[in-house]
Amino acid sequence: MPWRGKGGGRSRYRAGMPSPILRRALTEPGLRPLPERAARLLEDLDAPPRLAAHLRAVHDVAAELVGWARERHPGLAVDAEAVLFGAATHDIGKALHTAELSGPGAEHERAGHALLRERGVEERLARFARTHASWADPGVGVDDLLVSLADAIWKAERVIGLERRLVEVLAAASGQEGWQVFMDLDDVCDRLAAGADRRLAFQSAYPVAGGTASTA
């Protein structure tokens, strides 16, 4: 018998039976495809199509940020695999807490982390489900900050405190002046924000079970 997620909505787990519209959200051209492992998890959960589209949008931006960081800060230790998988699964808990697709809430953070761990995803990759909204916490590293930034800038949201935190980390790692790093980060954020309308349109083209979501 299918399991129904908290917050109502359609069944969330039909292993091996992803809906056609979910498959389309995962494969439609226009944004980078998710890592295969992440896509399989979403299919196994028969995740809401709009969640899959949102994760693709954030993952696409994260890939741009990883490329930028590697080019501009070659001495910085960035775990690209972790950042990309983290961006691709950061909101996976919303497949369980479906009400948080269309309204506020943070229950999806712990739930998503637990789901990933239960399915054998190592902590190095699973942690972003619980850290993506906690960028101000002590000990948050550059990989977590990049995922948090991608989760904001995909829709042209500029979070000044987050950007300043990342500037501090980048400046410390590169030895560059903070103002130089800030200007460089500001430029890439402006460039990525310019594509927000396209990404928002991609996300909004896919439905949320039980209602219409906001920008996730």
Query: Would you tell me which CATH topology applies?
Result: Hypothetical protein af1432
Order of helices and strands: EEHHHHHHHHHHH
Low-confidence stretches: 1-15, 210-216
Class based on secondary structure composition and strand pairing: mainly alpha
Instruction: Tell me how many strands there are.
Output: 2
- The appropriate CATH architecture is Orthogonal Bundle
State the helicity in percent bands.
Answer: 55-70%
Beta strand % = under 5%
Report on the biggest sheet: 2 strands, antiparallel
Question: Regarding CATH, which class?
Answer: Mainly Alpha
Q: Report the mean per-residue pLDDT as an integer.
A: 87
Count of separate DSSP helical elements? 11
Largest beta sheet: strand ordering: 1-2
Q: Outline, from the CA principal axes?
A: globular
Distance between the termini: 29 Å
How many domains in all?
A: 1
Radius of gyration: 17 Å
InterPro entries: HD_domain (IPR006674)
Protein name: HDIG domain-containing protein
Domain HD: 70-152
Pfam families: HD
SSE layout and pairing:
Elements: E1 3-4, E2 11-13, H1 20-27, H2 36-45, H3 49-72, H4 80-89, H5 107-118, H6 123-126, H7 128-131, H8 142-153, H9 160-174, H10 178-193, H11 196-204
Antiparallel strand pairs: 1-2
Helix pairs in contact: 1-3, 3-4, 3-8, 3-11, 4-8, 8-9, 9-10
How would you portray this structure in words?
- By secondary structure, this protein is an all-alpha fold.
- The protein has one domain: Hypothetical protein af1432.
- The protein is built from 11 helices and 2 strands, in the order ββααααααααααα.
- A two-stranded antiparallel sheet has the order 1-2.
- A hairpin with a 6-residue loop joins β1 and β2.
- The N terminus and C terminus are likely disordered.
